[in-house]
From TrEMBL:
InterPro entries, alphabetized: DUF1003
PANTHER family per record: INTEGRAL MEMBRANE PROTEIN-RELATED, MEMBRANE PROTEIN
Tree of life domain: Bacteria
Name this polypeptide is given: DUF1003 domain-containing protein
Keywords assigned: Coiled coil, Membrane, Transmembrane, Transmembrane helix
Signal peptide: none
Transmembrane annotation, as ranges: 35-58, 70-90
Source species: Nonomuraea longicatena
Coiled-coil intervals: 98-130
Length: 151
């Protein structure tokens, strides 16, 4: 085996990693997770399992592909579960991120509303004080009647 030389650059290593769009993958996982939570999914899985079991019990022996105790069916269901759980967790994490952003926006909106209400409250209090110092029509009439005296 050839030793790496430190005075020469390394050869480029080619990588055969698959590229995937994390956002698109997340959207697909959310759609899948939403589907897993429906009655349709439960009905489809029930029909699938019942057909699988009935086929492997009632079909002629040369057409059966998974004899009792249905090891291949167990493998298929385990495979489905092993993919479903991480996809559901991914969808939940994305939802939690959205909830966190929405909560932050709600907090900012609430703070702005509270500041506006506080400002308006001060303005109303200032107006009340200013009106209290003004002579109102009724006050002027009562003063004029006192000056004129009883008639």
């Amino acid at each position: 085996m050839a030793r790496e030389r430190l005075d020469q650059p390394r050869e480029l290593r080619r990588s055969f990693r698959l590229y995937y769009d994390p956002e698109r993958f997340g959207q697909l996982s959310e759609r899948f997770a939403r589907f897993l939570g429906t009655a349709s999914f439960l009905v489809y899985m029930t029909v699938f399992v019942v057909v699988w079991v009935l086929w492997n019990i009632l079909a002629p022996p040369f057409l059966r592909f998974d004899e009792y105790p249905f090891i291949f069916l167990t493998l298929m269901l385990s495979l489905q579960a092993s993919y479903s759980a991480p996809l559901i967790l991914l969808a939940q994490n994305r939802q939690a991120d959205r909830d966190r952003v929405q909560g932050e926006q709600d907090r900012q909106t609430r703070e702005a509303s509270e500041a506006e209400v506080e400002f308006l409250t001060r303005e109303i209090a200032g107006l009340r004080l200013a009106i209290g110092e003004l002579a109102t029509r009724d006050f002027i009439r009562s003063e004029l009647q006192q000056v004129r005296g009883p008639q």
